[in-house]
Amino acid sequence: MVKKKSILALIISAVMVFGMAPMAVFAASDSEITTDMPTTAVVGQEIEYGVTTTAGTDQGKYVLAKFNITGPAAVTTKYLEVNDNQWYELTGDSFGPPSTGFPFTDGATSKFRSTFNQAGTYTFEIQIVAVADQSVLARATHTVTVTDPVAPAVTIDMPQTFIVGEPMEFTISTTAGSQAGTMVLGTAQFDGAAAVEKIEYLETADGKWYELTGDSFGPASGFSLADATSTFRVTFNQAGTFSLVVNIVDAATQQTVIASAKSTVTSDTAADYTAVDAAIAKANALNRDDYVDFTAVDNAIVAVVRDLGSSRQEEVNAMAQAIEDAIAGLQLKQNDTTGGTATGGYQITAGADGVWVQNSADGLTITSNGDFTKFTGIKVDGADVAAEHYTAVSGSTVVTLNAAYLQTLTEGTHTFTMVFTDGEVSTNFTVSAQAAGTANNTMASPQTGDSSSVVLWAAIAVAAAGAMAGAVVFARKKKAE
Hints:
The chain has 481 residues and is α+β, with helices and mostly antiparallel strands. 18% of the residues lie in helices and 41% in strands. The protein contains six helices and 33 strands. Helix 2 packs parallel to helix 4 and helix 3 packs antiparallel against helix 4. The longest helix is centred in the C-terminal third of the chain and has 30 residues.
């Protein structure tokens, strides 16, 4: 009988539980009901709370406890029997012997658990009613919003391709959903374990990497499920395609999988970036201020994707070619030093805007910084010039137009272009008429290094000396007569 009364008291306390948390309390006297019942719950998940009564001046009165739950579905509620520490399900809406009731005591707290079977809004009303006159000594109401469960999830974010021998990072993220706070274990396993040299995790507390042993991560006792992201890295020792499976397991059972994810990756040997690095070095060696717009080169370099595998070598080659093409498309700013325009980073280093005087014996020399091995020819006024009309030598590339060819050009300004396999450079030159008084029968000063002109001048000097000697002899003879 004593146990029955104890159970009834617990039931009453349990009933009062439903009015806890931000529960509205109404007291006919100084009696009170309080509860710490939460305001939200999830379908199928049991919530635990307590109900406490304060009898006040109603101490010792015999009372009944009543509660009523309104909502879209029935609610299963249990109370904790303190005598045997067991949970028992509550039935009906009244607690206590219907005829005599039980004594109203001060400061009694009972524990309850409720489970909701359907989402919606539920209202709990708890009353302490006097047996003698059915007056309400204390009343409390409480509202609980119940939502459908949100399943926890785990996601893997990792590159599609890993490079053999290089540690590659990836992350594992958990979303707790409706099971936040549940103690769980984490496991991660590659199906090609022999190909994995090691797996490491980043310890956020000290920022260091630690190698994982076995296929579990996190404390052996488990960790509290939360919305979180952890960083790992794996090193493969051979190429191939492998799958990573990550499971989040209930720590209580160590068997129930509450979230799982799978990701497939390819381990590959590294692609060759030699051409890319060479193209970037070539671009970096240029003075961007010499060019009208360097944007295309910058964009091509930024577009380079590193750490690709050898199976994607063609993509890497295309990156290198894109940089080379951007360099070839560069246009030099017009200035007095280089003259003209250029692509491929070429410049005129000597002879820009030169002048050739008609009937001159020497040709016209123009020099560029171009690689002579890439030199293919020249153009004048946009037309190809036959090789017999010029000479070209290394250093870097030195082109001399023959005087005979220059003589065929009209007086005025002409364009000159050196053509290379990966670009070209242009400048202007001018064909000028002879100065006044220098007709075809007027001798020009011999050019340095022209041996034929030296011989000609020597012959003229000898002839002139002979003529003068003859003139002197003739004059003396004339005088003697």
